[in-house]
């Protein structure tokens, strides 16, 4: 199980350049004019995790299978998108389908690349996009609330439960606050997710800077970081131009190239790490002579749910999970050594999976 992030932003902020670099494809046409991306492009990339390489070596695995991250490049939004300006309705529908939003903000000057608003101001740009998403949510939620109020008067339980959440969210939207700022219980969270609101999705702000500022950012990206902290959102500094160059290099050349720029890792690695934190995801592993495989589940997932990430039959017929902590596997060097040391645990259906667990599922269907 991976997760998907919709890359959004105003036209000409570097969205498609970043998407191309991240997926190492030219599927999204990067051009200096609005709406060069007409259909959402989807790219799936492996999630780099050095633990997987170590486990594969120790397990003498023939094959390494990382978990994956999916990016959806969504065409640039413009002011008035919620009312159908540009290609607004189509783009808003595409955003509705993703798990999280990577909001690319332009934090560099360039005479060669025009800006749809005529100047560089990432805070204004963020507010423009957020406003359009809130207006779209306001419109859809007002219609739903009206329908649920009628159902609730008729005694429908589900409508009453939805209203308890919807009316609080509606108040927040009317006050200019996105849906994700509304505090909800665990049960209410399921209801909020079912409303499919654009502004309920977690946001990662990607401050796209010029090459010289890739390592430490610049004054403009610092404003983005401050805004993100104020909102309780995540932010990363990237240089889409550098990511495009890195994507063209052989793997052995990348480390030296990044080091020359004062970087220890690619922007992709930073986006993935921030994305995992944003969606509260963890990774577990399965290790054997055939393959070492990484899998992603939500933090708090129990053993049967993790089994289901591999195959639905594993979850349906779950019996137990033979569990090894990553540190124990590495320290002792093999599964057999872990067993001999009494460090392998047998866990039942209530076991909450930990990040880095090596799991072997027993099931019967």
Give structural notes:
The protein has 365 residues and is an alpha/beta fold. Helices cover 43% and strands 19% of the residues. The protein has 14 helices and twelve strands. Strands 2-4-1-5-6-7 form a six-stranded mixed beta sheet, with helices on both faces. Strand 6, helix 7 and strand 7 form a beta-alpha-beta unit. The protein is flat.
Give me the secondary-structure topology:
Elements: E1 3-8, H1 15-23, E2 41-46, H2 50-58, E3 63-65, E4 68-73, H3 88-96, E5 100-106, H4 122-153, H5 157-174, H6 186-194, E6 203-208, H7 219-231, E7 234-238, H8 240-247, H9 251-260, H10 267-279, E8 281-287, E9 291-298, H11 303-310, H12 312-316, E10 318-324, H13 326-332, H14 335-340, E11 345-347, E12 358-363
Parallel strand pairs: 1-4, 1-5, 3-9, 5-6, 6-7
Antiparallel strand pairs: 2-4, 8-9, 10-11, 10-12
β-sheet strand percentage: 15-25%
In oligomeric terms, what are we looking at?
A: single chain
- The number of distinct β-strands equals 12
Helix content: 40-55%
Radius of gyration: 23 Å
- Helices and strands, in N-to-C order? EHEHEEHEHHHEHEHHHEEHHEHHEE
Spatial strand sequence of the major β-sheet: 2-4-1-5-6-7
CA-CA gap between termini = 22 Å
Mean pLDDT: 86
Low-confidence spans: pLDDT under 50, at least 5 residues? 26-38
Number of helices: 14
